[in-house]
Amino acid sequence: MVIVAVVLFVLALAVGGVAVAGLIGKLPRNRWAGVRTPDTLRSEESFALANKVAGPTMAAAAGLLVIGGIAALTMSVAMGLGIALVAVVAALFTAGTGGAIGARAAAAIPEPSGCGNDCNCGHTESAGHTDTAADQTPVAKAEASAKEAASECGESSCGACSLKGACLPAK
What we know:
This protein is mostly helical. Helices cover 63% and strands 0% of the residues.
């Protein structure tokens, strides 16, 4: 039973750490911890919001895991395992519910606006653009258009946009 308790305490520590990091906004986007859906991973802001919203339920899940660990240590084998199993299922349900609420909060954030959305970045012709050299190659025309579009966005190049590299012609 000691092994079951130790596993539950380690899980509680990991889940609690993610909960605290999410609540204080220090959980970086990653592939292992936190609320990870397409909506939450599209920007730092949406990831931070989702994990801040899910933080209290993640902390509650960690608390449930601690309760299961204590039960595994202090009760008879059958009773301790039963309560530990119930605690694990309740923790998964609690964390899942919080994650779903966090994902919905992230989905409510509007799509990030970037060079590709606001100023025709990546299009071969932009508003008011006239070629000064008629003999430019299509690639050169696209690069010139992208630079002009980026300047309309207030960026030095489309490489600085949120859609990094989207304005550069395919090679």
